Amino acid sequence: MGRCYFHLVRGHETLPDPNGIEIPDDDWEQEIARIIGEIRAEAPELFESATGWTIRVIDEQGREVARYPL
Questions:
Q1: Quick one: which of 9, 5, 15, 4 has its CA closest to 54?
Q2: pLDDT digits (tens, 9 = 90+) for 26-67
Q3: Which residue, among 34, 15, 38, has the nearest Cα to 23 in the 3D structure?
Q4: Is the dihedral of CA 67, 64, 52, 14 positive or negative?
Q5: Which of these, 18, 8, 22, lies nearest to 69 by C-alpha position?
Q6: CA 61 to CA 3: how far, in whole Å?
């Protein structure tokens, strides 16, 4: 899959992920779910007060490959 970026989005507001993470081609959906789980474990307060926020997973070409509402 290559590098993916995990942007937090609510309406027209975006908190960009400037660095991204390398995602392996095999089982990339499972890897993205694992990363979301890590974010949830490391910053549970983000998920508790995140009404209306979504994590948009963007690939190196700028295409959205996944979307996870918080």
A1: 9
A2: 777 888 788 888 877 887 777 776 678 888 999 999 999 989
A3: 34
A4: positive
A5: 8
A6: 9
Amino acid identity for residue 10 in this structure: R
According to DSSP, the β-strands at 13-15 and 64-69 are unpaired
Distances (CA, A) of 8 to 1, 25, 26, 37, 49: 20, 23, 25, 15, 13
23 or 16: which leads in pLDDT: 16
Question: What does the H/E/C string look like for 39-70?
Answer: HHHHCHHHHHCCCCCEEEEEECCCCEEEEEEC
**64 phi, psi to nearest 5 deg:** -75, 125
pTM score of the predicted model: 0.76
Tokens of 50: 């995140």
